[in-house]
């Protein structure tokens, strides 16, 4: 491997660094060393500094039952109180949330208003729907302020929320409701996309059709669309909330009481309910907000994610509010009415930190190359990216055209399970390189290990991205399946005799010890920064009666990062016309089972799949064929070696 062209290095902006929370690499190294030498003392310091405890904890970290680590045992707190109440003395009239609707409507919610709105929703859940501490509440909502109230209301009364992204289908919603055994669903009639109303409530109706643990549905009015009401089950938020008291005591929660579940794809057909608990999660959400985005008291911060993903949880709601920041919530899509929308908003709101995904950057670049120049982007200080490795051309455009070559780009590497960033530059300290997540954040024992030996890898060697000690915001469990938790994250890499947390990503060190993430090592595809399990898509495709077998792989995609490429073996011999019809039908099935996000970009009908004699599908071969690469792998061990050529000829004829 001789791609030894050194990446350019960009030093932090000196002006910015002067006031940054972490000002230089000496400070970074000091923090890191402190954590290495006295791990518990380090976290104890920050837990005391950042959290307003109702009752102090007695133990910083309990590792007696690994991999189930317990943090800040004995302590009591309430996350909603951390995010709202404690700011009322000093920030009562400060904007907590600035909402910008799809059609340009906007609303400012101060900390005072956030307090009352959250309390009212909390009372509604408690008094009208009987929601108690520990109950699960599904939130299936558009990007409107009520979604944040719903999250915080649950936190306030100790209920466990589980947000399901609004793009998921009724079937996907039904599965998550069933797995979480949720009692209540909070939804909206619908919302707006590209100025047009779309509906959500009918999806909920479908998901609840038949047997369901859900007793009550709370419907927030957003677009006034026509919906059906099931008497005794469905209630209008807007009607009920008016009469709720505006004070609701915050439930004292144990540090390790669950805060939320968030379902994410893994290597089986069934998504996992990733569980995050209270104290550790909110601590790291706040610390990373402060360190990585370095938001100052009068700053305005915008993360473009959807609250249905972990980024929306930690970096639209919990992190910004825990530190008392002003966070923007945007209902629309970044390319509507044109690809200048985000830059117009930056100018309009004087946004200081902007956080988005590489896929969005690529689309905004492609569709709106000249748009940034039309707006005043001089308020920007920090630009963030997340979700997938960012490619150097997108990085360069972001750095030069959006950041005017003066903003730090924080390429934040993390995942649903890590709760917050784990590898990222610090904007005032870390010299950055294009498309490189750089170094573990202070306190995170992130290392690239050799999966065979458990030893730290050498420069350029490549290995598995691991975290060798538990950290406060790490996943606490897979809901209802402790074995799956152990197997998914602690089964692959053993260091010094101890299983360590493995992220599922490959990575390598460069000559400066910087970490570059190379992508998933498992069968998970990263579509537009969202994780999609191949097994999940395959399970959906198999529901079509005409499908005998299917294998799905990721294929590099110009805008999405990776697209979904499906190899399908049909039961019967179909004509071309029938195959064209099949493509439509199979996509319909996927849409029904998962949602539009899982639609296949390419589908090919093949006579068979390459399998070993024991029946295992050789995905590596399929990935290579999809990319049009040479097959370097030995195919003689296949059950039917001839099938590879047959597949290749089908794929080649499709590509002409
Ligand atoms: C997977 C996690 C974390 C919030 C959004 C996605 C990939 C994430 C980066 C980055 C390279 C990245 C990894 C990871 N990923 N950020 N900066 N550089 N890869 O959350 O759905 O849990 O997906 O996204 O593969 O494992 P998620």
Summarize, please:
This protein has 656 residues and is of the alpha/beta class. The strands form 9 sheets. The chain has an 8-stranded mixed β-sheet with strand order 12-11-8-6-7-14-15-23, sandwiched between helices. A 7-stranded mixed β-sheet has the order 5-4-17-16-18-19-20, with helices on both faces. A 4-stranded antiparallel β-sheet has the order 21-22-26-27.
- In angstroms, what separates the terminal alpha carbons? 32 Å
The average pLDDT is 95
* Broad structural category: alpha/beta
CATH topology of the domain at 528-654: GMP Synthetase, Chain A, domain 3
CATH class of the domain at 528-654: Alpha Beta
Radius of gyration: 24 Å
The outline comes out as globular
Name given to the CATH architecture of the domain at 528-654 = 2-Layer Sandwich
| Cofactors and ligands | 5'-O-[(S)-butoxy(hydroxy)phosphoryl]adenosine
Can you give a write-up of this model?
- 53% of the residues are buried.
- Helix 11 crosses helix 12 and helix 14 crosses helix 15.
- The model has no long low-confidence stretch (mean pLDDT 95).
- A hairpin with a 7-residue loop joins strand 1 and strand 2.
- An 8-stranded mixed beta sheet has the order 12-11-8-6-7-14-15-23, sandwiched between helices.
- The protein has 20 helices and 32 strands.
- The protein has a domain at 528-654: ANL, C-terminal domain (GMP Synthetase, Chain A, domain 3, 2-Layer Sandwich), CATH 3.30.300.30.
- With 656 residues, it is of the alpha/beta class.
- Helix content is 32%, strand content 23%.
- Bound molecules: 5'-O-[(S)-butoxy(hydroxy)phosphoryl]adenosine.
- 5'-O-[(S)-butoxy(hydroxy)phosphoryl]adenosine binds next to helix 12, strand 26, strand 27 and strand 29.
- Residues 264, 309-311, 386-389, 411-416, 437, 503-505, 517, 519-520, 526, 529-531 line the site of 5'-O-[(S)-butoxy(hydroxy)phosphoryl]adenosine.
